[in-house]
Every structure is written in C-alpha cells, then in structure tokens.
Amino acid sequence: MAASSSSDLDSTPLSYFKYDVFLSFRGYTRFGLTDTLYHALVNKRIDTFRDSEELRIGEELEGSLLEAIQRSRMSILILCDEYPTSRWCLDELVKIMECSDNGRKRPVLPIYFNVAKSDVQYQNNEYGKAMAAHEEKGRYNHKLEAWKSALCEVGKIYGQRCDQKTPWGMAIDNIVEEVTKRLPPLPLHIDHPLGLDSELVEAKSLLEIDSHGTCFMLGIHGDGDDISKFVAELYNMIRPHFVTASFLSNIREKTSESGGSLEDLQETLLSEMGEEVKSKIGSTFKGSSEIKRRLGLKRVLLVLDDVDSIQSLKSLAGGIDWFGPGSRIIITTRYEDVLDDYISNNGVEVKKYCITEGSSSTVKKENVVGLEKDFEIVINQLKEDDSPENVVSIVGMGGLGKTTLARKVYNSDEVKKLFPCRAWATVSKEYSAKEVFKSLLKCLKPSQYEDSSSEEELKQKVSKCLKGKKYLVVLDDVWDAKAWRSIKTCLPENNNGGMILVTTRNDQVAYVSESKEPHHNLPFMDKEKSWELFHKEVFCRKSCPPELEPIGRSIAESCKGLPLAIKTTAGLVAKRERSEDAWEEIMDLLPYWSIAEEDSSEVLEILKFSYDDLPNKMKPCFLYLGVFPEDDEIFVRDLIRLWMAEGFIEPIQTGRSKAPPQPEDIGEQYLKELVDRNLVQVAKRRSDGKGVKTCQIHDLFRELCISESNKPDNNNNNAHKLSFPSNLGSYACLVTCNQSCTCSLFLDNDVKSEWLHHIPKDCRVKVLSFADGPTPNDLSGLTDEFFKVLIKSLRFLKTGESFELSKFQNLETCHTEFGEKELSIGGLKQLRHLRSEFGVNFSVDDEGVKVKMQNLQTLSLAYADSQLGSLLNNGCFPNLRKLGLIVHEDHGSAEENLRSLHCLSNLRKLVLMCERFWIPFDRIAFPSNLIQISLSHFKDLNSMHMNTFGQIPRLQILKLKYGSCEEETLNCGTAGSFPRLQVFIMERLGIKCLTSEEGAMPRLRRAVFYNCPELREVTKQMCSLGSNLEFVEHRDVEVDDLVIQFSELLNDL
To answer: Does the predicted model carry a pTM greater than 0.90?
Structure first.
C-alpha cells in the first residue's frame, strides 16, 4: 500500500531526495562512534551520507556536501565536545536546521556524545568556550548568531545520550532503532498511474475540499494495489489544501504479528503532523487523548491505508471532534463491513466510495509483477460455460511464475464467488497419488486430511466431496501424462460447472488433459516488468538512486525475463554495497552465467551464482537440501540436526570463559542466511512469528543441489554425492562420502526390505531416516555384524521401530514412535535430541544416577515419574533446553515428580501433557529461564495457577490446549505479572471470561483463541492488540484424537 512522510509535507517531490540520512560529525569521531554508526545504518539498508575532508573546500558549503544536506530525508548530528570548534560543522548544522525547519518538516536526531544537552542549548562549558573563541577571532562574526541560534534549536530536541555509562553497542542499537522510527515511510512510487482521472475528480468532489465545516470521513473500499495507487494519487491532488497531513500506510500489516503496535502508529501520526513526541505514548488511550488535544484545532488531512479492524479506526481516527474544522479523513479498506461497523458503533458520518468490485486478488506476501493480463485470460477461461472441456492449463518453464499465477487466481474473490468448493494439491515430478489425494482432502474436509486410509479409499473420499458441486481443483506442477491419468480419476465430470486448473512445464500434459485451447503459455517478462520486479526486490518501497538505475536495468535485463532468476539476482544485489562499482562488478560476472535459454539446465547457472557466493562452510548445508523430496516441507529442527550428524556444523572453540554457541544455534544462523539470500523459502513460522518452523526449496534450486553434489570435480563438502535408488519404494536418497567412507540413507514409508543391500561395502552409516509412520520393519533383517558397526557409526536415526537405544554409543539425534520401556542412560553420552511419540521410561540404578548426559538438549516425550525425578535431582541432564513430559496419575504424585524441574537451569521450553490429571501448578517451582510453556489435557486450571506462571520472569509464550478450568472467569495475573509474555494461545478451553489487573502482560503482542466458543470476554490488554487478537474456528478435529494432538505438542519442541 502507498505511504507518505513528513518529509514531503513541504511539497518536496519524493524523487528529489537522494539519501535517507545525512551524518554530521567532528573529524576525530570518524573512526570511532561515527564509523560504527555509519555501518550499522548501512547494514539496515538506510542510505547514509558521510562526508570527507575532501568535500570541505572553500569558505561556504557547496557542491555535493550542500546537495547531500538538502536531499536527505533526515539528519543525525554527533554533538561531541569539539563539534562547535569546527566552522564546517556549525555551517552544516545551520543548513540542516534550515532545511528541516528546526526539525519540524524533516526529522533531526542529535546524539549527545559525552556532552550535556543543556551545554548545547545554552552554550555552556566547551560549547561556550568554542563560541567565545570564534567571537575573539572575529573572522566569522557574521555567522555567529546563526550558529548560536542553530545550537539553541537543536539543543531543544530530545535525542540520544552516548557517554561512558552507556556501552557503545547498546548506544548504536538505540540510535539505529530511533532512526528507524523517525525516518518517515516513503510513499509508493507510482510508475504507471491508473488513469482513473474521472474517478479521482468524483472522489475529490465527495470530500468537499472547499468546505471548512465539521470534519468528516471518506471510506474507499476495494482490493489489491489499485486502491493504494488510487488513494496515493488522490492524496497528492488534495494535499496543498490542508495545514498538515499524514499518510499512514499498510496499517493492516503494521499492526500484524510481525509489525508494530497502534501506539507506534499514533506516534507516527503526531510526528508527521509536525507534533513533537518527547516520550513513548505508552497506551492507545493516552495516544488518543494526545491526538485530540494537539490536533483538535488544526485543519488536517489524514489517510489511513489498508485498515482491517475497527480498533485501528478507533485509535487513529476517533470521532469527528478529534480534528479541527475542515479536516478530512480518508480510510481505505478491503472490507466494507469495517466501515459499516465503525459507522454504527461511533455514530460518525462516513461517505463510502468503491473503485473495484472483486477484480483484484489476495495472494501470498510476495512481489507479484506483470501477471495482470495472464490473470484475466485464465479467469475468463474458467468462466466459459459453453465449452465441453473443464481443464485450463498454465504452461511454462520452471521459475516463470506458474504457481504464483495459479495462487493469484485461486485466492481471488472472483474465483471464490464462482467456485464455492476449492482444493489445491502440488503434484511435482516424484509424485505420490496418495499424497495428492490427501492434499485435496485437506482443503475439502480438513478433519480427514491426515487420514490413514488406502489410496483407493482416499480417492473415493475426494470424489464424494466434489460430486454435484461447482468446484475448482488446482493441480500444481504436473510433470507427465502418467501423473495426470492417475489423479484425474477422482475428479467428477463438470456437469455442475466444476473446473480443473493445471500448471505444468510440459505442453504435452496440457494436450493429454484435453485442456481448453489455446493453452495459456506464460511468457517471459518484458524489460519494464523485469525492472519493476528487480526494483521491488532490491529497494522494497524506496526509490532507486538515479545513478544506479541504468546498471540496475542492465542487470535485470540480463535475467532475460525469468522471475526466479530476477528475484535470485536481486537478492544477491541487495546484500552488496549500493554503489556503481559494486553493481558493475556483478554485471561483469553475469555473462558467465547464461540464463533463460530454452534448455532449463542453463537456468541453473544463474542460480549457481548465488550458490558460489555462499561462504564455504555453508555450501554443504545448502547442497544437502537436495536429499528431500521435491516440494517437501522440511522441519528446520530436523534439518539442523542432520547437518550436525554429517559434520557440517562443528562446535566453536573460543578459548574464552563465556560458553560458545551450541551447534544448534549456529545451524539456526546458517538457515537464516540461506533464507535471507532467497535460497530457501519460509513455509511456516513459529508461534512467536520470528523463528522458522518449516522451510522449502524451489525445485530448480533442488536440481542445482543435486547437480553440484554429483559433479566429478566437486571438492567441496567432502564430495557428498546424492543418488536416488528407484527400487526401494516411492522415494529414497542415498548420500555417500568417499573421503570419509560414510553414507546416509533417506527412505519413504513403503520402503522395501532390500534397503540394506544399497549400503556400500565398508561404508559407515551416519544417518538413517525413515519417513513418519508405522514401519515395523525399518531395522529388521540387520545382520549381527552390520548392527555392531551401525551402533558405533550412527548419529541420526528416525524410525517407527522399537529398538535398544542405549546400545548406540555415538547417536546424537533419535526420533522414534516407540521408545524403550526402561531406558538406561549409561551409554548415551553423545545423545543431544531424543524424541519419542509415545513416551519413554527411564530406569535408575546406582550407576545410572552417577552418569551425566552433558549433551542432551531435547527430551520429549518422557513419563514424569519418580525415576525421572531422581535423574533430575542428581543433575543427569545439566544442559537440557527442551523437555516434554507425560504426567499421569499412575506415576504417583505430580507435585513430587515435577518438584525437580527447578534443577534444569538451562531449560527454555516445557511441554506438559497432563492426561486429564489435576496438577497443583502453584506448588511447583518452575525454572526461571523458561521462555515457553505448553500445557495440554490438564484438569481444573485456576487463577492461582495462572499467577504462578505469571511469576516466571522470562516466559514469552504460553499455550493452553485441550484442558478444563476450575473457574468460569480466569484471572491472568496481577500488575507486573507475565512481564515478558508476547504470545498467548488457548485452544478448546471451556472458559467464559479472562481478566487481569492493570499492568499484567505489558509486552503481549499476539493472542489467539482456537475453538473457544464459550469465551465472551478477554483482558483489556488483549483487546488493545487489534488484528493481533484472533478468534479462530479451528479445523474439525475430535478432542480425543491423540495422534494429532501428540504431534502438535511435539512440534512445539
């Protein structure tokens, strides 16, 4: 959505600005604070100008130095003790204050570096001495008053202190955070106006600009980017008629989980309206009062762009008495009912105007460029009723955007109205018809998507769900005719208007499926669309510096219209310095990686460019992604543990007293780097909205991983070669490393018993991974000789088999459905992660209690019994970070068995499955370092228990699932409780009311309630979350479906 800023309130065109920040400083700070700050800003992609001595020529500011001040959207002043001794610094200060109107039009941030704010404002101490020295010399007396006035004005601005009491690192972080807040968001650059001149005139007439009567509002509703461009053009048209203005863009996104709060937007509104905000607003109530008090007499223009909740309107627009006579408020929203609710609840007059009616779509959060005509063509083919064919095909090579277009169509409002029944399945090259049917069933009947029925039974269920309905089924990435024929049999004829949308790389699939003709062949992007996509990926909503545009266009053009190549190259460019030299260096290398020819193998060369740019230590981690099936959603925790098992992540030896980071933490950073470089895609995030839960890799990148791994001259990653035996089941991957004589094997559920014969002779096995599901013969048929070797070499094991775990001396990760009934920890000194679907019991003897499992990080699920309590009391798991427990009345007193939890000083995540068993949580001492607690199947939870959880000082995430409460009204804490809680999730609890005292959960930013139909009231703090307060009618799952519930709980760890 479009945006505006205080920087263009003086009618300065956006294209005028060249830099985000101008940095003014005294020379001696250049290689200290200034240099550190400069690089911190650049790393945040904040374009910063830092001058040099060569620019300070002559008697007056001129040339590039003067231009930089004039064309910067914000200025930072490093006010040290020697700053006023330099007439250049003082001249810069005067010009900065002049261009910013003393900080009113453009933000000015003073950094008081070992000086007092009052010394600057009143010219005391060193500042007084400097002014006296200038006056004594007499050379610049004609500037003296201007210098003093500028110092006085800048000294009135609350900035950032940086002195001996504040560590540099903390100071820099605070400054960068402050700059990010003060730097106004840029408006959307409109390359191609919509051409809706008559509609703009009509909307302007509705606003009655010439009337200075009471304030009123105009609500513009519609979908997609068109409404953003429209309101941006309207804003530019009417802005000169108002004293001050603010354009708050992307409100829906900014108040979402990964955005900010309404208080932040209130501060931005005041700041953009020219009102100085000296301290944090603190609450939306206070912010509302401040807006009304400060702006109640001013004629203002306020645009609230992309509003999705009435709470946002109440906090930002209030009533008509918030702003002065003649003010106008323009609200854009995708949901007309938001305007209706606001009118009915507040009694305000809101004129409504619609510029679109379902012509746009809701797509995944990505830059979608150049698909408007393609979208229209596909939609029209789907709407044709007079054609006997019921299949529409999108055809094109990999990376052209077939899936993106299909998703845009699938999620569009127009298609939702046309087809009440919709389903999506990704087929892929190595497809499984059973998995395709499961995916379709997941969309059509969520309660059965994990059905363990046979392939034929699943097919019949899908067919039954679609029969007699007007449906749309999307089959994404169909590779051959065989796949189409095996899936087509579950799709009824289109007697009721049912349609099928197929995406494929092979035009023959479109012919075999008897698709409507002409098949829609997705074209390459033209030069302008390529540049538009490249620009969005590199600069987001900022403008490209004019000097970089020609070479940027050349780089985009060299990708020859392939969106995937454009995005990948843009991801590489975005991480480089924004200078002509750096971009020319990239441009010079691009010819050596030819792309976008007819042969898709040449496309891999541009992808290889990004791969080659990876640090050597990360290359094997990336190539290892080739072992996973195409389009597979990969659990990040498993991926990192596999990297560790293969030896790609080695522990760091620092030689310092502070403990080095764990390999798991290093793996998280590796993954983050791969995501940042657009080599890996985030599929799902964790409940905190930050960490990555599952990821995916594009099939072209997967091809690159396989081809690079299997090159004869591959000297990287110890030559881990990937092969895919076709006679072991639906999917198998063998990874061999000749250098270390090791191998790893990944197998699907329907594995054949001959898998053992594929292990190379004299090769030690590091990884054995059998896909999820009951596989009673995973480890059957092993010879005694092979088993003896296996227990010494195996580091990672994932299986459904029950086995003697304690014999595996070097095992680091074990994921099994059935663990040993009595597990002895004596031989498991290397084990780091133990995950059992249905719990393990520990056996304890005198020798066992003495053993320490120093490396164990994850234990889930284990039975909370006296044996486990004894092990905890004796410090057997000193470094445990994640723990999942089954608490059952058959195992004795829960209070006694959980009493030892406080011994786990490193525990971060705790899952308790309580088996409908009452637990006195208020009498249990929880570890103080816990950041997440997940409780399920508990009985009679009460307010005292909640108060206990509220006293855990570092708790950030609390999940309460499938339990019962003792009280209808649950108190969530007293003032100061839950001091760091950010996420609160409740699922299937029969509770009517949640209350808390003022000051409880002060940092809460997300609350979600799944299937809590009796809940009528939540806390005030939760109510203030706006769109981050969610009430979800979850999937239709029986409460006692333990298989799903166990899996969900384990995924919390």
So the answer is: no
